[in-house]
């Protein structure tokens, strides 16, 4: 009996340990070939960039936006150019359940030149008032995603995002969210049925809701697929589309 209890304790401990991110991370557009941020998560669905209305983001741990402790990152750094102000938003696993106004993040100012910003956890702000009793040190223990919120007219060039003080200005390459071109074509056939042109007829695709939660992972059937709901975000062949 003692051995059984010991086994389950070890199993539980291994699960807890498994949900740990790296002590620091850095995503660089110049070195990225998969549009994925490597956070240290062991889950294969973590870190992929996705689009949603007025924003872009990635999940820290997995497609279900499971919260994980990111205290060790000490904060975030962002290197970017932007034609207008935007919000860097830290999403918490319990955010929507607790309150629609539960938001920690930072307002990033518009800049015509490359700007690097370092934001420690203590300098994260409550972007909407008010939620008494919630502290940033508790909030980041169940962090699930990082979002950039900007209007549709914004021309945003995001070069890097990483843990506090991990960014530099050594690269000139960037990922241009507004002007990024797509070679693929997605057409709505009927209802929730879509046809994809420009890729293999059996290519793998991913569907996310507007909060970044993965809804479906599958392969195309004769170049087409169905969505469980609308609107959704489609990710296929390193491209992202908003389907409505």
Structure, explained:
The protein has about 240 residues and is mainly beta. It has 2 domains: about 20-175, Sandwich (Jelly Rolls), CATH 2.60.120; about 185-244. It has 3 helices and 18 strands. It has helices at about 1-20, 95-100, 135-140, and strands spanning about 25-30, 50, 55-60, 75-80, 85-90, 105-110, 110-120, 125, 145-150, 155-165, 175, 185-190, 195, 205-210, 215-220, 225, 230-235, 240-244. The strands form 4 sheets. The protein has a 6-stranded antiparallel beta sheet, with no helix packed on it. The radius of gyration is 19 Å and the shape is globular. Mean pLDDT is about 80; it is low at about 1-15 and about 180.
List keywords for this structure.
mainly beta, Jelly Rolls, 2 domains, six-stranded antiparallel beta sheet, five-stranded antiparallel beta sheet, 3 helices, 18 strands, 10% helix, disordered N terminus
Task: Give the count of structural domains.
Answer: 2
Global mean pLDDT = 81
Q: What is the helix/strand order?
A: HEEEEEHEEEHEEEEEEEEEE
Largest sheet: 6 strands, antiparallel
Described by the principal axes of the CA atoms, the overall outline is globular
For the record, what CATH class of the largest domain applies? Answer: Mainly Beta
Q: Determine the CATH topology of the largest domain.
A: Jelly Rolls
- How many beta-strand elements? 18
User: What gap, in angstroms, lies between the N and C termini?
Assistant: 56 Å
Structural Rg: 19 Å
Q: Would you kindly provide a brief summary of this structure?
A:
With 244 residues, the chain is mostly beta strands.
């Amino acid at each position: 009996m003692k051995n059984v209890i010991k086994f389950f304790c070890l199993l539980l401990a291994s699960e807890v340990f498994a949900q740990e991110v790296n002590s620091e991370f850095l995503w660089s557009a110049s070195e990225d070939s998969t549009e994925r941020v490597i956070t240290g998560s062991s889950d294969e669905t973590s870190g992929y960039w996705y689009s949603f209305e007025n924003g872009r983001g990635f999940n820290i741990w997995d497609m279900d936006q499971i919260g994980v402790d990111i205290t060790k990152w000490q904060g975030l750094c962002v290197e970017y150019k932007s034609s207008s102000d935007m919000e860097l938003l830290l999403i918490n696993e319990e955010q929507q359940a607790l309150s629609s106004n539960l938001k920690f993040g930072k307002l990033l100012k518009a800049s015509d030149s490359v700007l690097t910003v370092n934001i420690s956890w203590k300098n994260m702000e409550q972007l909407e008032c008010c939620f008494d009793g919630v502290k940033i040190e508790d909030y980041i223990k169940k962090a699930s995603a990082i979002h950039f919120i900007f209007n549709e007219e914004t021309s945003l060039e995001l070069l890097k995002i990483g843990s506090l003080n991990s960014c530099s200005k050594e690269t000139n390459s960037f990922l241009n969210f507004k002007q990024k071109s797509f070679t693929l074509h997605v057409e709505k056939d009927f209802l929730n049925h879509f046809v994809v042109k420009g890729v293999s007829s059996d290519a793998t695709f991913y569907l996310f809701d507007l909060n970044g939660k993965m809804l479906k992972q599958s392969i195309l059937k004769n170049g087409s697929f169905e969505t469980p709901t609308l609107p959704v975000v489609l990710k296929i062949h390193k491209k992202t589309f908003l389907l409505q």
